[in-house]
């Protein structure tokens, strides 16, 4: 029996302020988190407030393409 597309997909969340600022001189990288989302419940791109160790504060992390 053929299986359809998975409902739960793995997504990567990336800090939007690190990317927007073009990597500040003090920061050494870009904060990324890996999580899962339900494709039926959230068809749009996922955005969560997570802690960014490079910005040293809570910022919005947005979903990126793999």
TrEMBL record:
Highest taxon above the source species: Eukaryota
Signal sequence interval, chain numbering: none
Main location class: plastid
A GO-annotated cellular component: chloroplast
Gene Ontology biological-process entries: translation
GO molecular function: structural constituent of ribosome
NCBIfam families: PRK00504.1 (NF001764), PRK00595.1 (NF001860), rpmG_bact (TIGR01023)
HAMAP family: Ribosomal_bL33
Sequence similarity: Belongs to the bacterial ribosomal protein bL33 family.
Protein's recorded name: Large ribosomal subunit protein bL33c
Gene: rpl33
